[in-house]
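Practice problem 4.
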């Protein structure tokens, strides 16, 4: 599993380092530690395929003009056996490297040889990473934030996996605490109202008013009749929750499964209370002198660890808070299950919780910097330029299920990953359902299908792919061919970048650019040309790009059609 861009930038660093050592030995430059410098791909390839700014960042330590430093470096660079055909100085002192034909040939060969593994690397070195995402409240259906969080979290996990991490996808089921109490009270009210009428039993002011609550209560009544009317409030609520909650959790699993999301772990908050985990972390904080009593409640000195204010751990009524359970949950992630990094995908409205939870990890003796929170902005659904807030079918807020009835799953997963998590996302329902090149996911899928069609048509003409040598692949010299190969080479580094920055949008943007460059190549170069060797080289390039596109779409769990 190779990363051509990384290997190339590392070779540039070695060439520069070797050249500087020679300059030091010859006293042409004073011995010094070189500051960090960048090696990047310039936007304009006339400035080289790669450029290094080492001369500019070294000007102060060498007390010399960047151009003069660059000239000294160039005088000792030996490109023999390297990826490069030449090196030049440009502008204020950039050192520009130009790739040799053998490099482009190597990239195509790598994609052909690695097949479904092209794009994968060992960058993460098998470190254990958990991605916890969606974790929707199991008291009702999933909304647009969950739809975006699902696509984002799942694709981020896929990028981390391809980048060489040992990834676990997890859903945290909030089946304890206030939300479940409210759920039970709402079910109880609807159950009693089913028999006694709405006037006879008051619905809780902060209860859940959804139709799903009425449906659960009615179904429970059909099974058990009025047997629970004479039970205690606690018995009645517990029975209703025990009936309805597993149904809701099963519905969450079903709907997320339709969305092509499969979790490795469904973790129950209730277990943290039952097995003493919550009491354990409270004891740790007590022993460290980080708690105090006030107004009958137990407080944690959160303000000592970066939070704006202290937090309640145990309420005056003796019940632990959600925050106490959250500390226990993350203690379990790090201390019990041994994850090196934990990534939580949260809605932007949770931003105030970030510092206090990271601080709590430090407080209990763990490393809060290993907890990474991805804050995700809101989604605005639009159609024909107008905001869409209500489902046509129910007249209520659009749920994940509603969305997937309106548009293809491929489009949903792609569109939700077209902007970085911290940016607000405008989701155009009309565009997502459109089958044209204006629809980004269709555009990328069409590039894959087009390559399949090209190969099929060539086969009908008796032209089949053959094994190609490096010399044959070096015939790919047209600017559109070189641009396409350079873009293909970037795939592994893009995956690493997406994993590092917790941003799958880097992959969707890359795929659009790759599709665009393929269409540009197809319009510039006839695949089946007069030169049989060049024809085979171009067929190889087509297959390399098809492999890359398929690997991208597979990572995003999006179909890679062969015909469109």
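Answer key:
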């Amino acid at each position: 599993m190779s990363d051509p861009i990384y290997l190339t930038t590392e070779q540039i660093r070695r060439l520069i380092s070797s050249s500087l050592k020679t300059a030091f030995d010859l006293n042409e430059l004073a011995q010094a530690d070189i500051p960090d410098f960048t090696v990047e791909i310039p936007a304009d390839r006339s400035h080289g395929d790669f450029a290094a700014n080492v001369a500019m960042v070294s000007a102060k330590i060498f007390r010399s003009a960047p151009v003069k430093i660059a000239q000294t470096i160039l005088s000792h660079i030996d490109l023999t056996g390297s990826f490069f055909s030449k090196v030049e100085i440009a502008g204020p002192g950039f050192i520009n490297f130009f790739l040799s034909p053998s490099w482009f040939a190597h990239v195509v060969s790598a994609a052909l040889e690695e097949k479904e593994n092209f794009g994968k690397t060992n960058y993460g070195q098998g470190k254990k990473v958990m991605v916890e995402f969606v974790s929707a409240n199991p008291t009702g259906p999933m909304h647009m934030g969950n739809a975006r969080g699902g696509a984002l979290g799942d694709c981020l996990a896929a990028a981390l996996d391809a980048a060489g991490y040992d990834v676990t996808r997890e859903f945290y089921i909030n089946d304890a605490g206030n939300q479940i109490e409210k759920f039970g009270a709402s079910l109880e009210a609807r159950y009693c109202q089913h028999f006694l009428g709405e006037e006879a039993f008051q619905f809780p002011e902060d209860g859940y008013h959804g139709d799903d609550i009425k449906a659960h209560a009615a179904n429970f009544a059909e099974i058990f009749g009025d047997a629970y009317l004479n039970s205690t409030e606690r018995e009645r609520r517990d029975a209703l929750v025990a009936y309805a909650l597993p149904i809701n959790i099963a519905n969450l699993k079903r709907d997320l499964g339709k969305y092509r999301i499969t979790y490795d772990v469904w973790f129950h908050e209730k277990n943290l209370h039952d097995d003493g985990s919550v009491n354990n972390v409270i004891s740790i904080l007590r022993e460290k002198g980080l708690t105090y009593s006030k107004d009958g409640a137990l407080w944690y000195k959160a303000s000592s660890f970066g939070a704006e204010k202290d937090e309640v751990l145990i309420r005056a009524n003796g019940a632990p808070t959600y925050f106490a359970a959250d500390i226990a949950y993350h203690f379990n992630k790090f201390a019990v299950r041994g994850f090196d990094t934990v990534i939580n995908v949260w809605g932007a409205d949770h931003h105030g919780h970030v510092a206090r939870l990271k601080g709590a990890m430090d407080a209990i003796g763990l490393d809060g910097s290993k907890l990474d929170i991805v804050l995700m902005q809101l989604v605005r659904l639009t159609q024909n330029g107008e905001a869409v807030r209500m489902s046509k079918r129910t007249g209520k807020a659009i749920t994940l299920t509603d969305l997937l009835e309106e548009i293809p799953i491929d489009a949903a997963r792609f569109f939700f990953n077209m902007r970085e998590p911290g940016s607000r996302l405008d989701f155009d329902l009309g565009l997502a359902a459109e089958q044209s090149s204006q629809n980004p996911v269709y555009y990328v899928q069409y590039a894959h299908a087009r390559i399949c069609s090209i190969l099929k048509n060539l086969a009908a003409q008796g032209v089949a792919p053959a094994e190609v040598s490096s010399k044959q692949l070096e015939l790919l010299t047209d600017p559109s061919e070189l641009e396409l190969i350079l873009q293909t080479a970037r795939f592994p580094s893009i995956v690493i970048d997406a994993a590092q920055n917790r941003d799958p949008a880097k992959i969707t943007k890359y795929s659009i650019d790759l599709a665009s460059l393929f269409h540009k190549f197809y319009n510039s170069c006839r695949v089946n040309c007069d030169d049989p060797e060049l024809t085979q080289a171009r067929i190889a390039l087509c297959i390399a790009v098809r492999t890359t596109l398929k690997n991208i779409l597979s990572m995003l769990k999006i179909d890679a059609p062969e015909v469109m």
